[in-house]
Amino acid sequence: MNIITWIIFGTVTGIIANFLDPSPDQGGAIGSIILGILGGVLGGFLASLIFGIGISGFNISSFIIAITGSLMLLYASRVFKSTPRY
Predict the structure, then answer these.
(1) What is the pTM of this model?
(2) What is the Cα gyration radius of the chain?
């Protein structure tokens, strides 16, 4: 996929992930794009490592993988932000 496709794919999956897990610090449009792209990379890496499948374009399995990766990133950021630092 080229860079424009990654931005569109990241925007769509980031918006869906933010919709599924709303939090007060959304990050705006740029945050959704970055969340979706990084979620796609993380989800694609883990899916290829565990199941032998990855992101192959605009299809339902790629969206599920990218959204799952985005939700994992949202959860991880919430865990690290809520940890008290001494």
Answers:
(1) 0.76
(2) 13
